[in-house]
Write a structure and sequence with these properties.
Helix content is 43%, strand content 11%. It has two domains: 169 residues, Aspartate Aminotransferase, domain 1; 283 residues, Type I PLP-dependent aspartate aminotransferase-like (Major domain) (Aspartate Aminotransferase, domain 2). Strands 2-8-7-6-5-3-4 form a seven-stranded mixed beta sheet, with helices on both faces. The chain has 536 residues and is of the alpha/beta class. The protein contains 19 helices and 14 strands. The N and C termini lie far apart (70 Å). It catalyses: L-alanine + 2-oxoglutarate = pyruvate + L-glutamate.
């Protein structure tokens, strides 16, 4: 670009770029010279601008060039409505006036963020594992110290900061197996079939990844409930598999009907190879608890149609309705006899994030996988080894979920008091939410038998549907966005979970404290009545 001090000849591109940047800013590249001012010809200036243009080349990674499977991923629980809630929170902090003083994020099952207190014993053990010097402190009970020492002995260098085996710490996998045996009334569990995971989501994604294969009409189809937890549709999109929807029966408390499974399977065979069946029990977002007969029917269907079963059981402690009981798929499978128990391939999942613990941030979880082909077992361990190991603090937290204090230990009384308080509170809030929703005109809510969400059906007038279309929004997204903007309440539209054509819902967690939940529900009631009046 001509010859300033030091020159910009040949390969000295960096100097040329600095020169071009200076020219673009309207200043001398090297400042004033003692012997006079450098004069730049028009040709030199044009050459510098050309170099500057070349410097801002096109990006390699764009929406057009990125992985199309990632672009297809949608996760409604943290989707556009949540981004909008974040923007409103920033505006409130800046002092911008709204018809409310806070955003209530009822979009996600994050118990501690909603004010639930941690379980003392779990935090004590994790604290002891994290800072072993506390093992000498008289402030911690001996039963917590005993568990912490055992976990640390399973860690390299007796430190939570070391990598573990990819499958997880061996003594914790032994504790998980013992827990499953107790839960299922003596049904045997092998620690070698236990894989500790980064929350349940990590295990679900890993199993789907190893299951999906083929192309065209032989591409793997994955059967998921509608409504579903968006992790499933997101993972299916990312892996370029085929989503096969089966609909839960809203008129029958979101029951699972085998005839509907058969319909979905037979239709899907025309365009893919369905080989995976996912069940969420208790249900998310629908809150139903499957009865024993239903589970038997599903297992028989999977056996008959040669389907790999995925049982998402992270809400197994969250059962509230009288007459409802959690039955694990593993237990029912075993009780159906050897023809089923020795043949049906089953992966079941649990987590520290839900239940009475609510320890979402630790990202602790496990999966038990039975009847896996021995060679595939090695492939699964190989796949898991790529991420080295799950968070070790999360493994420790999972251990306390499956190995809590027992009668006779000094921490038992406090532990059981805290556990029952959380679960009893959730049961009250489930009933409160159901009752209050069903008093609102144009809203219907099925019984919240379990989990920690309500999924009410809402009536949206045709005028509102037309306005939603004009804004290029799904009608329930339009409704939820209006709810957020007018009340500060953040919920997730039913379209993010899937729903039957022509029906509209939203998912709302029941986790806020009772008094705040009452206020929230009253606000929803007032909003809905005004919404109907406006668009009727």
């Amino acid at each position: 670009c001509g010859r300033g001090p030091g020159g910009c000849r040949g390969g000295r591109t960096d100097m040329a770029l600095r020169c071009a940047a200076s020219l673009a800013a309207g200043r001398q590249p090297w400042g004033p010279r003692r012997e006079g001012t450098v004069r730049w010809s028009s040709a030199a200036k044009a050459s510098a601008v050309k170099i500057n243009e070349k410097a801002s080349r096109e990006k390699i990674l764009t929406l057009e060039s990125m992985n199309p499977q990632v672009k297809a991923v949608e996760y409604a629980v943290r989707g556009p409505i949540v981004l909008k809630a974040g923007e409103i929170e920033k505006e409130l902090r800046k002092g911008i006036k709204k018809p409310f003083t806070e955003v209530i994020k009822a979009n996600i099952g994050d118990a501690h963020a909603m004010g639930q207190r941690p379980i003392t014993f779990l935090r004590q053990v994790v604290a002891l594992c994290t800072y072993p010097n506390l093992l000498d402190s008289p402030s911690f009970p001996e039963d917590a110290k005993k568990r912490a020492r055992r976990i640390l002995q399973g860690c390299g260098g007796n430190s939570l900061g070391s990598y573990t085996a990819s499958q997880g710490i061996n003594c914790i996998r032994e504790d998980v197996a013992s827990y499953i045996e107790r839960r299922d009334g003596g049904v045997p569990a092998d620690p070698d079939n236990i894989y500790l995971t980064t929350g349940a989501s990590d295990g679900i994604s890993a199993i789907l990844k190893i299951l999906i294969s083929g192309g065209g009409k032989s591409r793997t189809g994955v059967m998921i409930p509608i409504p579903q937890y968006p992790l499933y549709s997101a993972a299916i999109s990312e892996l370029d598999a085929i989503q096969v929807n089966y609909y839960l029966d809203e008129e029958n408390c979101w029951a699972l009907n085998v005839n509907e499974l058969r319909r979905a399977l037979n239709e899907a065979k025309a365009y893919c190879n369905p080989k995976v069946l996912c069940i969420i029990n208790p249900g998310n977002p629908t809150g139903q608890v499957q009865n024993r007969k239903c589970i038997e029917d599903v297992i028989h269907f999977a056996w008959e149609e040669k389907l790999f079963l995925l049982a998402d059981e992270v809400y197994q402690d969250n059962v509230y309705s009288e007459g409802c009981q959690f039955h694990s798929f593993k237990k029912i499978l075993y009780e159906m006899g050897p023809e089923y128990y020795n043949n049906v391939e089953l992966a079941s999942f649990h987590s520290t994030s839900k239940g009475y613990m609510g320890e979402c941030g630790y990202r602790g979880g496990y999966m038990e996988v039975i009847n896996l082909h021995p060679e595939i077992k090695g492939q699964l361990v190989k796949l898991l080894s790529v991420r080295l190991c799950p968070p070790v603090s999360g493994q420790a937290a999972m251990d306390i979920v499956v190995n809590p204090p027992v009668p006779g230990e000094e921490s038992y009384a406090q532990f059981i008091k805290e556990k029952e308080s959380v679960l009893n509170n959730l049961a009250k809030k489930a009933k409160l939410t159901e009752d209050m929703f069903n008093k609102i005109p144009g809203v219907h809510c099925n019984p919240l038998q379990g989990a920690m969400y309500a999924f009410p059906r809402i009536f949206i007038p045709s005028k509102a549907i037309e306005e939603a279309k004009a804004h290029k929004m799904a009608p329930d997204m339009f409704y939820c966005m209006k709810l957020l903007e007018e009340t500060g309440i953040c919920v997730v539209p039913g379209s993010g979970f899937g729903q039957r054509e022509g029906t509209y819902h939203f998912r709302m967690t029941i986790l806020p404290p009772v008094e705040k939940l009452k206020i929230l529900l009253e606000k929803v009631k007032d909003f809905h009545i005004k919404f109907l009046e406006k668009y009727a």
